[in-house]
Amino acid sequence: MSKSDFPPGYDDSRSPLYGSQTGDPAPPAYGFPAYGGQPQPPPYAPGPGMYPPGPQTQPSAPYPGQPGMYPPPGGAPGSGYPAPGMPPMMPPFIPPVMPMPSSGGGEPEGFAAPGGWDSMAVRHTFIRKVYLILASQLLVTVAIVAVFTFVHPVRVFVRENPGIYWASIAVYLVTHIVLVCCKGPRRRFPWNLILLAIFTLAMSYMTGTMSSYYDTKAVFLALGITVIVCIIVTMFCFQTKVDFTSCGGLFCVLGIVVMVTGIITTIVLSFKYIPWLHMLYAAIGAIVYTLFLAYHTQLLIGNRKHSISPEEYVFGALSIYVDIVQIFMFLLQIIGAASK
């Protein structure tokens, strides 16, 4: 049997040196054909949209991953493909930032850390919102104090009906606790403003009732001193380099001191009125709440160790409002006790 009677091997059929002596075309190679029914070309980088070869004809080097290609069937995946059962590659995770009002250039502002300030425009907008709410609260309080002080029938009515005063204290405590301790109602519009309005009316009634027991001159004097103290403290907080926000523990102790002193004073004065003890308690309260006003003002304006988040505009207005009203009531007690 001659050499031409046997079918050539795959390598011989692909060799350009092999040819039929009779001029007939070479017979096809034995074995299973590759995908597509045609012999595989030499390894090359596949283009987009092509299927890689099957596991029987794996090239010596894995195909690089190309967009739009399927992973090789079976066996270990080629380079550029995720391992079987693994999720696809994701871009690096970027922590979301809180959406803020644009600063004029159309780019949203965010915060690098909770309570941080990355934009002067964000800070100024937040401060304007807080002081606008605060001005509305103080306007309501001053109006109620004026009515309770100058309108004689109202003045007599609130003195003869102390039950309304105690009810206003209960409403004041409940709304204060809800606004301070519950983040949901404090941040959810319009419930935050509704609760703040109820709180303002309750505290305004308490302040007006206390003012009705003092002379008109004492009320005006306490109001004037309160305005001067608030302006001085605010200007000081904007200009000073002293950071009151880093003294949170000290202010916690001062608050406990005022509370304990108030309880002791109330118990003692319920048995016998002692003017100097009443004035001492009022003086301590006025000083402590003046420091609290400086502390809360620096939390509001930022650029300190701690600051209030821009979402907490209700909490910011509430804190400063309570400080101002408490300063007024303590000063009124001092001036009223001194004038008797």
From TrEMBL:
One of its GO terms (biological process) is negative regulation of apoptotic signaling pathway. Residues 1-76 are annotated as: Disordered. The keyword Transmembrane helix applies. It holds the Pfam family Bax1-I. It is found in: Membrane. It is a multi-pass membrane protein. It comes from the Eukaryota. The chain crosses the membrane at residues 130-151, 163-182, 189-206, 218-238, 250-274, 280-301, 313-335. Residues 39-75 have a biased composition (Pro residues). Its main location: membrane. Coiled coil: none annotated. Keywords: Membrane, Transmembrane, Transmembrane helix. InterPro entries: Bax_inhibitor_1-related. GO terms for cellular component: endoplasmic reticulum; Golgi apparatus; membrane. Belongs to the BI1 family. PANTHER family: BAX INHIBITOR-RELATED, PROTEIN LIFEGUARD 3. This is Uncharacterized protein. The lineage of its organism: Eukaryota, Metazoa, Chordata, Craniata, Vertebrata.
